Q: What sequence folds into this?
């Protein structure tokens, strides 16, 4: 009985009896700081930790929602070595940080990563920002619609791919709305075909 | 001894009998008989691995009159004729008023047997097990073909009565029905016979309506001169059974006569069972009834059919002391034949017996049987004529018959002098067959099962008797000399405790099971063998014959393996023509069949190998020029029928020829309206290797077009594709160093199937196009570690693809093509156009 009470007290002190763990702002800030380091290895580790924390602690996700979009918006520091930037993009996607949608939509043309096949390419498998936007899902639709309205053909094509995969009513409405204005006939046909499926 | 004094109608019979002694041929004349050869055909190879079975469907068998009472016990005997799997069988008991009781399902092991106590089954339904009731049985189970042999045994141990009736499968009934519908114009009718072993024998016939509709039936019993003794009309409700007593048999002055039954239902609606009995002395026998050939439209000119029927192991004289009958028990054999047709028939009896281990025979004069005449062959007279008047032992009575197909009803057996011990023998046709099975044997509670084998060939034959029992099987090799007979009890085999070739010994505790008699080369070896088996119990004074099974190909069991099939233009497909056997195995006729194609411009075929010649539809057929046995679950007809065979079995399968072509270079095919503009990873609208590394999106790819030409509408197909790939090389890390990488890319179909954006599949066209541009982005990124990224410096990438189309209208009809791309990047990120390649087939991923 006494042992049980002691054990409960220890667990309570450690916070292990609570369903979610609230991280200290300092710890989150330290990890976030590391996200901005020059070391790809440190960035990767910090991103992994923040992902883990963000999945169980809403406050971490909120912290990142405020601070991550500007980092993503900057784009890769080195175009040839986009690894650190990809880590931030994946973090935004995995934690579904809708606030980063606009930043992500800016970089839909980074599309030359990894093995390529047509099926995979249209599923945005080679496009880190596009993949993250699809993971965010319906909250990312306004940002993608903005790309449809103002983007280059190449950007619009990826926005269409992303909206097709999101496939929410709002995404389909966006495609329907845009197809009237789409100037590229092939892309227009693609939108029409996707809407008819 | 001979037909009674009332027999003035057929005086020739008496003359024939009088001539027997003078015309008798003994065994010395054997050399003058035509030589009967044993089958020598090499068994077909088995299909290996076996083809999948067809989908299971509901199988059922009906019939099997059951009777319960204070002394009457009814049991349902089930045998699984399948050697490759168990079956769950649900017995259903119908009372005479049509009330239905489904009993608990019974699980039959492979080749296993089970006995269901009907009295107890009824008791569990709240029906008194001692009540005098009757009805019929149905069994239900799920399997692609009928695979259960079912028999109902009714035993009154107090009065030493036994009646055994078989269930008939729906598939067999359907076959009969089809024959009947094409040949019968009148109402379904049946004809049977009665004979009086002694003066107090009476009879009964039970009519079970196995349908949901009431039917009306008429029963008429006649004397030897075909005068009506009695006639009645009865109505039988759905699933009801009516028992018609035949006391007129007892009061009749003659000793033989006929029985006529007709009804207004479908020809399969009635399950008819009959019996002869004298409770006072414990005499009982089955009353043979056949579907009437008299009502068949047999043209006058239709030639009579010759066949040979065996009645094996007829006991005569003093009983074998080994069988432990009461002292002084002596047996007299009997054999009765009725010609149910409107045409005359003849029967030529030959007796075969063993004398000092040597087969001996005596051929006796031919007997004529007029239409609708019942003839008692007076076997004691035959024995006397053969010089066997004082013979103690067993003889085989072989009847060479000539008459209308299936028109002779037969009954035979042996009876002791008190008419208590009745050893019925089922007359079986003698013909080439595959293995035969005995559905049930028993050595428990005073039972023993006697098996009689006779080799009808003039040369020795080797067989294997396999006894199946719970927990095992035992194989006993048996060599039968030419024309030799061998009789043995199953208990002798068990008690011998001699291990078989595989070291198996039947545990002494085993008392029941099933058995199969096959050629030494396997169950599908053709053999020429007559077999009979009966289970007797001396204490209870009963003997019963359970149904036998002819192993063989099941109904609709001559099959093509790929049906329908698909073959590519210039491609080949090996077809297999096979027979599905009841045991679960499959005979492969492919190499011994003649193959043909109905459209050689589309596909040719030789030895089952189909070669696609052009896009289109085709039908490929195979015909085996020989014969193979047909499976009969309940081979217990009273008509002396043989195990059937199918001559020249054939099969056919529709097929489609299509072709998938992969275009690796040049322009898109005319008619392909797709565009690489929607394939954003490439920088070119033409086919081939493309260096897009200096353009957006910075890739190396190979633009490919896949074209499928099909025989019908393009929208009737699904398209799928899969990849197995590997990329290995070096990338330049952020610190400037070269790091090795190895990345596999495995996406089994349909994960790499073409999206609609690059798929052209239009109604009204017979061509499908899709585009692909496999390759690699110039940036390497480790999917598991974002720290490991960088521009690829050098690389070898191999991707093996399988592109397929499958018909939506013809399940399982698919075509596939394998192709590959190999992209080599030299140090410095320079595309190596010399060593990069693409083509049909696949490349090794071990590099």
A:
């Amino acid at each position: 009985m006494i042992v049980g009470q002691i054990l409960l007290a220890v667990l309570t002190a450690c916070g292990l009896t609570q369903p979610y763990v609230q991280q200290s702002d300092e710890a989150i800030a330290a990890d976030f700081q590391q996200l901005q380091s020059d070391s790809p290895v440190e960035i990767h580790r910090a991103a992994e930790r923040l992902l883990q924390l963000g999945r169980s602690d809403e406050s971490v996700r909120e912290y990142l929602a405020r601070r991550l979009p500007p980092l993503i918006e900057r784009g890769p520091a080195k175009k040839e070595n986009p690894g650190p930037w990809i880590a931030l993009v994946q973090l935004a996607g995995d934690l579904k940080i809708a606030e980063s949608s606009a930043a992500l939509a800016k970089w839909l043309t980074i599309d030359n990563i990894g093995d390529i096949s047509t099926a995979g390419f249209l599923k945005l498998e080679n496009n880190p920002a596009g993949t993250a936007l699809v993971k965010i899902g319906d909250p990312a639709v306004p940002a993608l619609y903005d790309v449809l309205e103002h983007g280059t053909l190449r950007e619009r094509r990826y926005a269409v791919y992303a909206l097709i995969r999101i496939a929410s009513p709002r995404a389909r409405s966006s495609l329907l709305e845009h197809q009237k204005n789409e100037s590229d006939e092939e892309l227009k046909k693609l939108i029409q075909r996707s809407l008819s499926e | 001894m001979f037909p009674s004094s009332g027999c003035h109608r057929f005086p020739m019979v008496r003359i024939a009998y009088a001539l027997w002694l003078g015309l008798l041929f003994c065994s010395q004349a054997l050399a003058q008989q035509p030589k009967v050869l044993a089958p020598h055909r090499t068994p077909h190879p088995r299909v290996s691995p076996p083809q999948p079975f067809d989908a299971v469907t509901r199988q059922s068998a009906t019939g099997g009159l059951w009777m319960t009472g204070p002394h009457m016990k009814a049991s349902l005997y089930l045998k699984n004729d399948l050697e490759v799997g168990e079956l769950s069988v649900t017995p259903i008991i119908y009372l005479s008023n049509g009330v239905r009781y489904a009993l608990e399902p019974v699980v039959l092991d492979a080749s296993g047997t089970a006995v269901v106590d009907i009295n107890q089954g009824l008791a569990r339904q709240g029906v008194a097990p001692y009540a005098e009731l009757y009805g019929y049985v149905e069994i239900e189970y799920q399997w692609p073909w009928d695979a259960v042999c079912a028999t109902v045994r009714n035993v009154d141990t107090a009065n030493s009565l036994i009646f055994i009736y078989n269930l008939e499968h729906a598939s067999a009934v359907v076959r009969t029905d089809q024959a009947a519908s094409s040949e019968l114009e009148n109402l379904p009718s049946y004809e049977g016979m009665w004979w009086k072993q002694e003066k107090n024998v009476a009879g009964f016939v039970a009519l079970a309506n196995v349908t949901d509709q009431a039917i009306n039936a008429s029963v008429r019993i006649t004397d030897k001169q075909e005068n009506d003794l009695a006639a009645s009309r009865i109505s039988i409700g759905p699933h009801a059974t009516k028992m018609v007593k035949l006391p007129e048999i007892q009061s009749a002055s003659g000793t033989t006569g006929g029985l006529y039954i007709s009804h207004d239902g479908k020809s399969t609606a009635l399950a008819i069972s009959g019996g002869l009995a004298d409770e006072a002395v414990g005499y009982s026998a089955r009353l043979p009834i056949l579907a009437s050939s008299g009502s068949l439209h047999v043209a006058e000119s239709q030639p009579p059919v010759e066949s040979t029927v065996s009645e094996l192991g007829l006991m005569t004289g003093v009983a074998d002391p080994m069988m432990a009958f009461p002292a002084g028990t002596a047996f007299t054999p009997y054999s009765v034949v009725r010609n149910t047709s409107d045409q005359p028939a003849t029967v030529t009896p030959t007796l075969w017996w063993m004398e000092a281990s040597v087969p001996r025979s005596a051929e006796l004069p031919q007997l004529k049987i007029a239409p609708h005449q019942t003839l008692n062959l007076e076997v004691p007279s035959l024995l006397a004529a053969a010089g066997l008047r004082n013979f103690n032992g067993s003889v085989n009575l072989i009847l060479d018959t000539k008459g209308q197909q299936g028109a002779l009803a037969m009954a035979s057996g042996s009876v002791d002098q008190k008419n208590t011990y009745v050893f019925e023998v089922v007359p079986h046709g003698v013909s080439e067959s595959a293995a035969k099975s005995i559905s049930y044997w028993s050595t428990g509670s005073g039972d023993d099962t006697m098996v009689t084998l006779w080799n009808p060939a003039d040369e020795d034959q080797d067989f294997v008797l396999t006894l199946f029992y719970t927990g095992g099987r035992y194989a006993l090799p048996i060599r039968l000399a030419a024309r030799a007979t061998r009789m043995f009890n199953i208990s002798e085999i068990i008690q011998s405790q001699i291990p078989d070739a595989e070291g198996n010994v039947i545990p002494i505790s085993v008392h029941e099971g099933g058995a199969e008699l096959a050629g030494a080369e396997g169950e599908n070896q053709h053999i020429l063998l007559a077999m009979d088996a009966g289970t007797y119990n001396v204490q209870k004074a009963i003997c019963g014959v359970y149904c036998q099974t002819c192993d063989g190909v099941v109904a609709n069991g001559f099959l093509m393996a790929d049906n329908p099939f698909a073959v590519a233009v210039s491609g080949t497909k090996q077809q297999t023509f096979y027979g599905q056997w009841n045991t679960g195995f499959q005979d492969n006729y492919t190499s011994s069949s003649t193959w043909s194609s109905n459209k050689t411009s589309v596909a040719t075929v030789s030895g089952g190998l189909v070669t696609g010649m052009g896009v289109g539809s085709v039908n490929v057929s195979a015909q085996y020029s020989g014969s193979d046995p047909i499976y009969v679950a309940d081979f217990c007809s009273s008509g002396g029928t043989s195990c059937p065979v199918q001559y020249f079995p054939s099969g056919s399968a529709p097929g489609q020829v299509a072709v998938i072509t992969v275009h690796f270079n040049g322009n898109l095919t005319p008619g392909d309206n797709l565009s690489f503009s929607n394939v954003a990873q490439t920088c070119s609208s033409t086919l081939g290797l493309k260096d897009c590394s200096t353009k957006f999106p910075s890739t190396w790819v190979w633009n490919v077009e896949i074209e499928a030409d099909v025989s019908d509408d393009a929208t009737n197909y699904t398209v799928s594709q899969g990849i197995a790939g590997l990329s290995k090389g070096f990338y330049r890390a952020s610190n400037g160093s070269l790091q090795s990488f190895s990345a596999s890319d495995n996406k089994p179909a349909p994960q790499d199937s073409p999206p609609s954006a690059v798929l052209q599949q239009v109604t009204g066209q017979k061509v499908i196009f899709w585009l692909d541009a496999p390759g690699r982005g110039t940036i390497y990124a480790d999917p598991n570690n974002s720290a490991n990224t960088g521009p690829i410096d050098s690389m070898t990438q191999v991707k093996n693809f399988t592109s397929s189309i499958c018909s939506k209208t013809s399940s399982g009809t698919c075509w596939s093509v394998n192709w590959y791309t190999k992209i080599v990047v030299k140090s410095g990120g320079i595309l190596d156009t010399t060593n990069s390649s693409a083509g049909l087939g696949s490349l090794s991923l071990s590099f």
In short: Chain A touches chain B at residues 40-41, 43-44, 47, 78, 80-84, 86-87, 90, 109, 111-122, 126, 128, 154, 157-158, 184, 186-187, 190, 193-194, 197 (CB under 8 Å).
